[in-house]
Amino acid sequence: MQNNTRRKMVEMKGVVKFFGRLKALDNVSLDVYDGEKVVIIGPSGSGKSTLLRSVNRLEEINAGTIIVDGHEISDPKTNINKVREEVGMVFQQFNVFPHKTVLENLTLAQRVVRKRSKSDAEKIAKDLLAKVGILEKAGEYPTKLSGGQQQRVAIARALAMQPKLMLFDEPTSALDPEMIGEVLDVMVKLAKEGMTMIVVTHEMGFAREVSDRVIFMDEGKILEEGSPEHFFKNPSHERARQFMRQIL
Amino acid sequence: MAALADDKKPHLEEARPITIDVGDGAAIPSKKDVGLFTAWRVAFFGAIAIIVYLVVFKPDPYLDIIKFVPDGILVTFQVTVLSILLALVIGLFTGLGRISKNPLINGISSLYVEVIRGIPLLVQLFYIYFALGRIVQMPPLPSAVLAMGICYGAYMGEIFRAGIQSIPKGQTEAARSLGMTHAQSMYHVILPQAFRTILPPVGNEFVALLKDSSLVSILAVADLLRRGREFAAESFAYFETYTVVALVYLIITLFLSKLISIMEERIGAE
Hints:
The complex is a heterodimer. By secondary structure, chain A is of the alpha/beta class. Chain A has a single domain (8-246), classed as P-loop containing nucleotide triphosphate hydrolases (Rossmann fold, 3-Layer(aba) Sandwich). Chain A contains nine helices and ten strands. Chain B is built from eleven helices and no strands. Chain B is flat, with a radius of gyration of 22 Å. Chain A binds chain B through residues 19, 22, 24, 43-50, 56, 58, 81-82, 84-85, 87-89, 91-93, 95-99, 108-109, 112-114, 154, 157-158, 161, 170, 174, 218-220, and chain B through 1-8, 10-11, 14, 168, 170-171, 173-181, 184, 188-189, 192-193.
């Protein structure tokens, strides 16, 4: 999948992150190309969420460099808000705004950050709500929605900014099993449209269907990377083999 | 292998509900607390009944007292409302300062809270009116409002801080991930949500401040208590006057507590 004529969307070099004395990221280097879909797997506490969260500086790193869309975000002088406008993020706990209606969830940042007019923002929002299949809930408050619906609102909210890169942090882990499908469907649709995506997930079905590359992390390091098939058939690292046995 | 719990860390905080409890002012009569609810009714209607009884059956001196003190009620409300507005503004900035990562701003806000909470309100009133009066002479009412606002601002700051911190971290992260600045996410996402948590304790502070406003009577502000003192000094009817003053304070604070509990129920029902 490494095609050097393609533009790098994310470039991480020698990234180190400590939580107190714990080394959450241990000299991690990773490139993600424009249009690529990368799935990160690994046991709990392996640093995969930390890696994802450092891409939009929700976690500040202690050493190394991270370049996102040509901006070095590990440089404190970089205006991180400008970079974040281009990087959508979806959280495990949805984090929809409970005091705003579904429609307002989608228009808030468009208006405040992108400075779009109310009518422009609402048009984009409604198109996206239709796309994720919850247009009829536009006027509701998110607390009235199921987890799957809330997560679809959260995805649509991130997409409303028309980002170049989407980060997904275990988007289906907090969902009841019967709602996982509806969220994954939206993500598959998005992947097929060519969005650049980094996804932390245990959903190997999703990985097999859309990902170009799977990355296995353990103890803050990238231990192995390869195609989804490679991980299904014969991961070379013992830790990866063990992990795959557990989740399949 | 689970030594690094970072993957799960942000989510643990979301499950923890925080309630702010400020044990000041009259108790807010919640319908759940049947004993208190009954007590509220007995006290409120009892106080009104006693006043009506006294005025009707002993018009001398009670009718005269009832005619004399209402001017003071207006002043009491004036002092209370102005002070609470000042305290809200100071409290918002203090609360934001107390959670600021900037050590200077954080230090100043924390110092303000510590110093103010460590000095009795009465001493603060004296200090601003009499001690600072040697440098800047202010009329009694602005002095009173300034002193009460500064004092209650410190307490209000702690309420704002707790209210802001009660909002899950994920809300800030979601807002910031969308490209909002710190100020934008505060204004559009955090404060509107914190407001619901903050409202009941702020209402409680309002009632507490109304009671404490009786202290300003020593600064020659003609509030409810001061009017009572003036009447009593002329008529020597100390027992009768202060009975009425106490009952009027009681009726006002009970009435306000009730309003707050209704407001709280409405917010909870949304």
